[in-house]
Each structure stands twice: as structure tokens, then as C-alpha cells.
């Protein structure tokens, strides 16, 4: 079709005939006259209008001359083959390489961004469209991703980011495609699959306001309000007291299989063989083999995903004085070869829990949406703390046989919870009770916590001293070191000194030892600075 009219004078007959031909072409191909993307220089195919409004926009604002392939209006899209084959530009780099680096995607990952074909064409079109006429370094998409990364890196507010976009649009040449608001920018980036769900939660970690509690305004367990309380003790209706971010993994799993190279890597484990008989990959583990044997329909299809879940808390403000913490929940795909499975782009953030206090045992409440998704994937594929033994004497007996998952589940469900405070939500997954290894402990983290507890107990640091009334009562209950039992007085309870209690002079010697400690570079932080 002749598109020379796009460069003609808007008052000319050629421009008038071209506009009518374009509108007729769009109506015939899209079979609608009310929901057509407007190609004027202000709307740049982001807004939908009727034919009459679009005609006015194209006359008053002018047509976007960089819109050469009418992909949004029914013309076959030529850039799909270029994107899938990674056609090289004149400078030898893929036109999508910048975006791939910024958001950790392969070029093949541009295969699909959702079920909406218009949304897909929109994103790919943004990857082809220069940020302003004649620009070869940045496309509309790559520039937007770069700007959004700056927003996240430096903590810009939405208002600040919107003003920055407006300034950028004014600074760049006329006809540039920089969005004019945070809303439009976020709408464009959501098509990349970066969407999430904000879920309201009870401040006491009792429930998530979803499913049957979606419309509740008070927690059915503790009765506390769903809404945040202001400084004047007045509830701010509509402002949640606590929010959890959930990033659904299923759309990202689909994207992995829509990439030819990634889909091939997901079956790598089936072709490999363990040469030396040792466990060099999770595929060699008993858990992997048990799933293959117990559910052959799972093991016979190498594309079925084997996932690991990891979570830990951290202080996002990097300040020891701040009690604020974030708890990310991350999924790792073990199907991939070792050199890929631990790369950042294949580590999926599924949950982000933020609160001054850690969730503890109540983390199951926040894992509910993730477990629901994992259960749906699974259904889709298938259609006693021994106190008597601790008597203070050497133990020469053989270790007891570890409990199976089925035995653990039976004990927990029958109320025999000597070792467990609750039933883990992971037992809702049908296969969980059969796994020989259900949890992997972070040894380095445990060592750090044990070291903290030892030092806190030796130096009697408030809040970190494990030698308290409860610990002494446990010793008394087990018949160990009875002479250290608490001595109750009229005003206070006295704990007799134990062999681990240090005198003031001994504590000073310990601190002097830390103060003069020297370790190899990079071995640890400067311990000297931590000693008063």
C-alpha cells in the first residue's frame, strides 16, 4: 500500500486520500470501527478510539511518520522474523541487545508477552521504533527500560519519574516516543511480563485478604482492622495496614518454553549421564529419582520442571539500627544445567514480604498463593524430641533411622507435635510427604547464628543471651545440672552462675582478643570496629 501520503502536507488532497485509505484498511482488517489504535504523533498507537476521532487526530496532530509497518492495523508484521532470528544491525549488535542486558532476557525470550496478540505486537513494535526520528542508538523500549532502571536504582517517586519523562520528552527532538506519565510507562512495561499482585495481609500475619476473605474489613482470627491506623488513631479506609507482593511464576514458566534455546536447556538433565556415580547435579539425588519412580508420568517427560524454593530475610536499608526487613521467596529451576540454573534471570522472585518483624512460623500464610499455583501445575501434570536419651552421659548407640515424610505427616496430623510447632503448608502438595529430603539448611547461616548465640551467652548480651529461666527449667526437666535450677525470691529470680559465665575480667580479655584480631583480607569485616 502507498504510504507516501504520510510525508505530504496535511492540507493536500494526497494526505486526505491517504487518511481515508488507511482508515478503510484498518476497519477491513480489524473488523471494528470503535477500538482502533490512533497513529497520530500524540497517541502513537497507545490509545484506542473510533474512526471519527482518529480522523480528527491525524489531521490536527499529524501522523507518526516513524510508524512504517502498520502492524497495529492489520498489516503483516515483518519484524517478528527479525526478532526471532536476531537480525544484526549495521553496528553488529542486535537491536534488542540493550533491553536483554537491562532485564536479563535472551533474545529468544521475546517470543511471547501474554495472550493478547495486540499487546505482543505493541511491545515488539516498541522494540523497533526509534526513540525519536533518526535515532539509531535507542529504541522506545530500550530507552524506557533504561529510565525505569534509574527510577528503581535511585528510589524516585512516581511523581518525580513522571516529571522526568515530561522533561525528557521536551528535550528530545519533535516526534519522540517518550511516554508522558508513569502510568503510560508502567502500562508498556507490564506487557513484558513484569506484573505482580498486591495482596492485603493481617498485620498479625493471620490471613491474606483473598478468596473468602477478599471483601473482609477485619481479620476473622484476631479481629484487627484491615486498614492502616493514622497518627490520630483514625483508620484510613482503603489504605492497607500490610501489603505482600506476589509475582505469579506460571506466566514466566510459559515464556521459558516459548524460547527455543531455553526450552532445549530445560531437557538437558535427561541427556546427561553421571560418569563417576557421584551426585554432580540434582538429577542424581534420591528425591529426583523417587519422583521418577513413584510417578512415571512425571519422570517420563523431561520437560516437567523440578523446582527449589529458597527464602531468607535481609535489611534493605543496610543499617544495623533499622529493624525493617524484607523476605523474598525465590524459585530456582533445577532442570537447567549448572551454568544456567543459578543465573539471575532464571531465579524467579515469587513473593516479597516486608515487615519490621520476621514472619517466622506464619510464613505459611504468605506462601498460600504460591502453593495454589504449584498445586495447579501438579494437578495439570497428573490429571520426637528424645529427652530421655539426653542424660548428660556419653552416647555410644547407633543413630536412629530418620523419619519419612509420611511418618512426619502422620505424627503432625494426630497431634503428636513434640518436634514441630505446626503442619507445614508444603504437605498440601501431594508429592511432598514422599520426598526423602524436604528441606536444605544453610550451614553457613546456622554457624553464624550459633556463633552469635555463644558470644551473646558468654558476654551476657541483652537480647542474645540464651541462658535464661526457660533454659534452666529445661535442664531441670531433663535431670541435667540440677544445681543450676532457678532460685526464686520474693522480689526476683536468681540464676546460679554456670561454668560458662565469665567474670568481668574474663569478659575484658575476650573483648581485647577481638580488638587485636587480625585476619586475611576479605576473610571478614573489620572486627576491631565492632568492639567498644
UniProtKB/TrEMBL annotation:
It comes from the Eukaryota. InterPro entries: Transpos_assoc, Transposase_21. Residues 3-75 form the Transposase-associated domain. This is Transposase-associated domain-containing protein. It comes from Prunus dulcis. Coiled coil: none annotated.
